[in-house]
Automatic annotation (TrEMBL):
GO cellular component: cytoplasm
Organism: Paracoccus litorisediminis
Protein name from the UniProt record: NAD(P)-binding protein
Cofactor field: FAD
Single GO molecular function: oxidoreductase activity, acting on NAD(P)H
Length: 399
């Protein structure tokens, strides 16, 4: 079986490795439009942006590994279409026939439109190596940075920039930071951490436009305030890469729609990672995380080879900001109750999410023990009562 994997990020690398580990001996070809072989993305907004980590540690596998494994990399090559009838991927450099095709295309950062100054030089996003190559030289001590968006990208970039000595203002349009992904209690801890490190956080105020003629020189807010800026970073979310799938007539529903095994509406085409949405108990689910990219890609690899096993996500996330580590286990979607526990240090503690009386997720800031125990409880299907979590003197007793 000739397998082509389109998109050469984390999910692609994990899928290719798993296919070989499971004994697939046929051809495997990865096609990606970036120039670099697959690399880790999480450090891009953390240690790599800070300059504490080099490219050598970012890469997922050395050049020799791909050769040894007989996996062919077509880099800096952009797919332009999928001819499903002929089972061929079309690119700007040629054609690649497949027996099975996997779409691991990821997601692309949303940008502010040109009418809002989103196109101006000095406006950056943080998603791939090229973005960092453009933004990093501008992160110079003493400069003024406005970060637009208070999700993990915006917050992590703000933390790095403060560490590098910039003056940082973060603007979140929604009533509070982390509205999409975390409870108010977690947002409170993260806001306090940032303010303690000198980040100015403005919430509940939108952006009128980024100002400037030759380059960005400030941001005008919807309440009329103007923030002068030497550079702007936008972390306003991502959109799944579905254009190729849509053009090929595949079902798309908040991502390339797959069945529980990761197969798209064409049985010869699979999808995994940020670009894929899979069935969940209440509708479809699409997860934007490296954990999902790895796990779903490995599940799809097994299913391509006939395993026939449903993909069951075990979500985990983390975020490093300043000297603090936020660890997240489970998925908090639909939570209706939250319990908090104080942590040991100044900026620390844990937030436990419940839905219909069941523990579904834990956010732990500088509290590895709460994370570890919460993760084990959730994965083991155990659910101590909210009162027990709030009152336990030793969390281990909950196990
Ligand atoms: N540590 C981690 O797990 C981690 C780190 C970085 C990125 N990521 C992932 O990368 C993806 C991109 O991250 P992100 O932070 O850009 O996305 P996000 O969707 O999590 O957050 C975007 C934020 O921008 C705000 N926003 C949107 N439009 C705005 C506007 N016009 N003005 C001001 N605020 C606006 C939103 O309200 C939201 O809070 C996400 O999937 C994220 O979870 C994860």
């Amino acid at each position: 079986m000739n397998i082509v994997i389109l998109g050469a990020g984390q999910a692609a690398a994990s899928m290719a490795a798993k296919l070989r580990a499971l004994g697939h001996q046929g051809p495997i070809t990865l096609i990606g439009d970036e120039a670099e072989p697959p690399y880790q993305r999480p450090p891009l907004s953390k240690a790599y942006l800070l300059g504490e980590m080099g490219l050598d540690r970012l890469t997922l596998r050395g050049a020799e590994w791909w050769t040894e494994q007989g996996i062919i990399l077509h880099l800096a090559e952009r797919a332009t279409g999928i001819d499903r009838a002929r089972r061929v991927v079309l690119t700007d450099k040629g054609e690649h026939p497949y027996d099975a095709l996997a779409l691991t295309l990821g997601a692309s950062p949303r940008r502010l439109p040109q009418t809002m100054g989103g196109h101006l030089p000095g406006v950056h996003v943080v998603r791939n190596l090229a973005d960092i190559a453009a933004a990093k030289p501008a992160l110079v001590a003493g400069r003024r940075l406005v970060v637009i968006g208070g999700g993990y990208i915006g917050l992590e970039a703000a933390a790095v920039a403060r560490k590098l000595g910039l003056h940082v203002t973060l603007v979140e349009a929604a009533p509070r930071i982390l509205g999409r992904v975390a409870a108010a209690q977690t947002a409170d801890m993260i806001r306090a951490l940032h303010r303690a490190h000198g980040v100015d956080i403005i919430e509940g105020v939108g952006i009128e436009r980024i100002t400037g003629t030759e380059a960005a020189d400030g941001v005008t807010l919807s309440d009329g305030r103007h923030l002068p800026a030497d550079l702007v970073i936008c972390g306003i979310g991502v959109a799944p890469e579905t254009a190729l799938a849509e053009a090929a007539g595949l079902a798309v529903d908040n991502g390339i729609a797959t069945d529980a095994q990761g197969r798209s509406s064409d049985p010869a085409i699979w999808a995994a990672g940020d670009c894929a949405s899979f069935p969940a108990s209440d509708g479809r689910m699409r997860l934007e995380s490296v954990g999902n990219a790895i796990d779903m890609a490995e599940a799809v690899a097994a299913n391509m080879l006939g395993a026939g096993a449903d993909y069951l996500p075990k979500p985990w996330f983390w975020s490093d900001q300043f000297d603090a580590k936020l660890q997240i286990a489970g998925l908090n979607a639909g939570y209706d109750q939250v319990v908090t526990r104080p942590g040991a240090g100044t900026h620390g503690g844990s937030v436990w999410y419940y839905r219909d009386g069941r523990l579904i997720a834990v956010d732990a800031l500088n509290d590895a023990r709460a994370y570890m125990i919460g993760k084990r409880l959730i994965e083991g299907g155990k659910s101590p009562s909210p009162e027990a979590v709030a009152e336990a003197t030793d969390l281990k007793a909950l196990m």
